[in-house]
Amino acid sequence: MLKLELCQSFSVHINIPKDELNVNDLIIFCKNASHRFFHLLFEKLVTSLQQHILEQALGAAWKPRQSIAAPWECPRCRSRYGFRRRGRRPRSLKTSVGSVSFSLFQVTCCDCNKTFSPFPKLFAIASRHRISRELEQLMCSVVKDLSYAKTAKTVNLFCEVQLSPHSVHKTVQHYGARATIVEDLSHITHLEIDSTKIKAADNERGIDVHLALSVGASHRKGKRIYRDKHLVNVEVAQHPETTKEVLKKSHVDQVVLDGHSGLEGYIQKEKLPMTIQRCLFHVPRTAAHMLYLDGLSCLEGRDLVKPMKKFLFNENVSVKKRLRQYDNLLFEFRKNGYTSTCKFLENARPNLYTYKQFAETDLHGRTISIVERQFREVNRRMENGARWTPAGAQNLLNLKLIEELNNQSYDYLWKVRKKRKSSFEVILC
To answer: In which domain, by residue range, is 83 found?
Structure first.
């Protein structure tokens, strides 16, 4: 354990008017005092750590020696021996507790006469970077629910720093492009896949967001039942090409689809060993739209599919009887000449009740309700009155969904270290 004894005394003078004393004034005073104390402590701690590292590598300042390799190397000649102290230079960082200023000690290489500071690399401070990583992580956690401008305003208000929406956007694009799923998802058995449109690209109607979630067991927390879910893939594109690659490489038993993205035909064409389940919620909804294409009004189409909504989800009736009712309705549509509707219902019929072969009591495999619930949050965040670029939307959704659904991948993005038994001990006297 590294022990640094920082001998420093602080004197506090408080002038409080007797006639204006209230708890809010005391809170503001304590907040300002804590910020001032933090800045002094941080500067003292950084200085002491650098002095300790220099003494361990180069010896005392009045008696220099170097018998061991330094924990750094010269950026010019790559030497790890032969350094001497060479003053210090100022540095500042924007953090979650405000802007902090400190000094970085410098050394000079005796072989090539290069002067540099080894501590930015040792302290994980990026070159020419003025924002700390923990503040960037805070920004990415806030921006998943707020716009770039509101995120900058919120961070500036609570952290007492000056950030622009451009800085927030730059941070999101930097880390969103590097956010990937690192968990081993080879054990997943059920997938729910759906797509929604967002206002992006040059297309007037927007571009599709394809989302694939793995659905696991359910558990009760209080009075509510929650379903285990993990992000498998999110793709902002007109066609789900990466989603097809995921299906090809995975060992999934069941895939729940709505029949709109073309993935059902891809699975059948590639002869992938997985069972397709049509979303029972989308069947009557799409049938009503098909009736509109066949010449009926929206109200007439909704009235004709009302019987379908009743028997599709009726678990008290056998599957055989429900399919008989489905065929009777299909016969009526064929007799009235609704060709587009009949074609859709015929294609959906073989995959209406395939979920029954997995679990008789597990009814979550009937619909893609979990994905639809996630799309509500996606659409709420992406509807900001502006038009996104596909890359910008992809990077933001990577951060948003990975943080909410894949904690291990999000921690890996920020290189979060495990808690260690050892810790720093600071003694103020």
So the answer is: 5-9+21-130
